[in-house]
């Protein structure tokens, strides 16, 4: 699996017997990378693959899972003997606030943003850390871990968790080949200290080691474990998605026309305005949680922020020209799926805030194709979008300036 860090596109290839590629049924395997189109548009920043199941994390906090689910390793409170062939949102993880995910053979471990650890799936060897061999169908907090964790890694049937404040590395699960690092070949049903250099020789009395979060990076293999000491290369940021932030905006507005920096800015505008993921990532609000009947919806774009940014950008003719070209040639053609993932629908909240979608000269190339994309949405997607637009968010953007455009949008939605 491969994640394009600049636009959030996810690609997979190989065997697809239980849906682990996320490409749908009828695709037994792929010999070359193919885009996982069902999460196209979501601003994905991290991906993880286990033996036969996969996860993706969006910048908004949404989590998607697909593939094998015979032991509950997708965390969706059910078992699927034949697997899940398309990515599905894991509502329970959205509510937790996920920092990272790691996948084993048939279990999954999650690091929440508050440093707590949750596991689910197969627990045969104790790899879930709950002092049990039972499986878990939903994310369950590992209560034995009382400190804030910074890294979580799954091996085939074992799990490692790093606690930076004390320098402790904890291992649990299958240990028949010593892969937990606890000094025993007995399976560890709950977190036990790994005997790092500088720690006590006895696991039951191990105290602070001589490592900290800046000196250790944890890796796991099938039945093996590794640590890298020295400057940490473990990713801690939100990903490398291109997006419009304050610094980028000011650079675009002040760059000298024709300079090297101008060419770079033009390229950035082209990439961002060609990608629904990048546009959504640019305007995510701090609070992205919305519940509808217990199901997590991911509408979290700040429409007012988008409106303000594009009002500034429209002052530069060369910026508007580049944006228009990118919208026409790449972005709008990519929006023709009748059933995009829920999060990807947010781009339809952003585009109406851009002046080029209100100009008569752009009716053939921008406005009609966008209206066609909306009219082509499935009934379920249209219902979600209608619900969102009938809330305060809709009312906040409804003004005399936008009336004609939104009237056309509503006709497309309700026809």
Structure description:
By secondary structure, the protein is of the alpha+beta class. The chain has eleven helices and 19 strands. It has a four-stranded antiparallel sheet. Strands 8-9-10-11 form a four-stranded antiparallel sheet. A four-stranded antiparallel sheet has the order 12-13-14-15, with no helix packed on it. Helix 3 (260-272) runs parallel beside helix 6 (317-331).
Short note summarizing the structure:
By secondary structure, the protein is α+β, with helices and mostly antiparallel strands. It is 26% helix and 25% strand.
Strand content: 25-35%
What level of helicity do the residues show? 25-40%
Read across the widest sheet, the strand sequence of neighbours is 4-5-6-7
DSSP strand tally = 19
Can you lay out the helices and strands and say which pair or pack?
Elements: E1 2-3, E2 10-15, E3 29-35, E4 44-49, E5 53-58, E6 63-69, E7 80-89, H1 91-96, E8 98-103, E9 107-112, E10 117-121, E11 136-141, E12 151-154, E13 158-163, E14 168-173, E15 188-193, E16 216-220, E17 225-229, H2 246-254, H3 260-272, H4 276-282, E18 290-292, E19 295-297, H5 303-313, H6 317-331, H7 347-350, H8 363-375, H9 379-389, H10 392-397, H11 403-414
Antiparallel strand pairs: 1-2, 2-3, 4-5, 5-6, 6-7, 8-9, 9-10, 10-11, 12-13, 13-14, 14-15, 16-17, 18-19
Helix pairs in contact: 3-6, 8-11
């Amino acid at each position: 699996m491969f994640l394009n860090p600049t636009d959030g596109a996810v690609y997979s290839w190989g065997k697809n017997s239980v849906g682990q590629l996320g490409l749908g049924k009828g695709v037994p395997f792929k010999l070359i990378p193919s885009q996982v189109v069902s999460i196209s548009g979501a601003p994905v920043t991290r991906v993880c693959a286990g033996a036969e199941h996969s996860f993706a994390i969006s910048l908004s906090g949404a989590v998607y899972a697909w593939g094998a689910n015979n032991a509950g390793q997708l965390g969706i409170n059910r078992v699927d003997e034949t697997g899940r062939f398309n990515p599905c949102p894991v509502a329970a993880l959205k509510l937790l606030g996920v920092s990272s995910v790691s996948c084993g053979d048939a279990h999954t471990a999650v690091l929440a943003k508050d440093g707590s650890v949750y596991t689910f799936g197969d627990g045969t060897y104790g790899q879930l850390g709950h002092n049990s061999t039972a499986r878990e169908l939903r994310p369950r907090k590992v209560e034995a871990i009382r400190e804030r964790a910074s890294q979580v890694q799954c091996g085939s049937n074992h799990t490692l968790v790093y606690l930076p404040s004390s320098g402790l590395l904890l291992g649990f699960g299958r240990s028949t080949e010593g892969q937990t690092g606890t000094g025993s070949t007995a399976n560890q049903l709950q977190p036990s200290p790994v005997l790092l250099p500088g720690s006590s020789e006895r696991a039951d009395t191990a105290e602070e080691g001589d490592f900290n979060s800046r000196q250790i990076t944890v890796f796991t293999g099938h039945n093996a474990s590794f640590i890298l000491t020295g400057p940490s290369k473990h990713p801690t940021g939100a990903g490398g998605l291109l997006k419009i932030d304050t610094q980028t905006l000011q650079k675009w507005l002040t760059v000298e026309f024709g300079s090297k920096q101008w060419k770079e800015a033009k390229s950035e505008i082209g990439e961002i305005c060609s990608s629904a993921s990048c546009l959504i990532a640019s305007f995510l609000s701090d609070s992205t949680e919305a519940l509808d009947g217990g199901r997590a919806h991911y509408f979290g774009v700040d429409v007012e922020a988008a409106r303000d940014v594009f009002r500034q950008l429209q002052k530069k003719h060369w910026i508007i020209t580049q944006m228009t070209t990118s919208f026409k040639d790449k972005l709008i053609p990519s929006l023709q799926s009748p059933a995009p993932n829920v999060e990807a629908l947010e781009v339809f909240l952003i585009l109406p805030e851009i002046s080029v979608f209100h100009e008569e000269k752009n009716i053939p190339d921008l406005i009609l194709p966008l209206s066609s994309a909306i009219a082509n949405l499935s009934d379920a997607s249209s219902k979600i979008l209608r619900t969102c637009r009938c809330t305060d968010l809709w009312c906040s953007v409804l003004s005399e300036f936008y009336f004609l455009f939104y009237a056309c949008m509503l006709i497309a939605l309700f026809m």
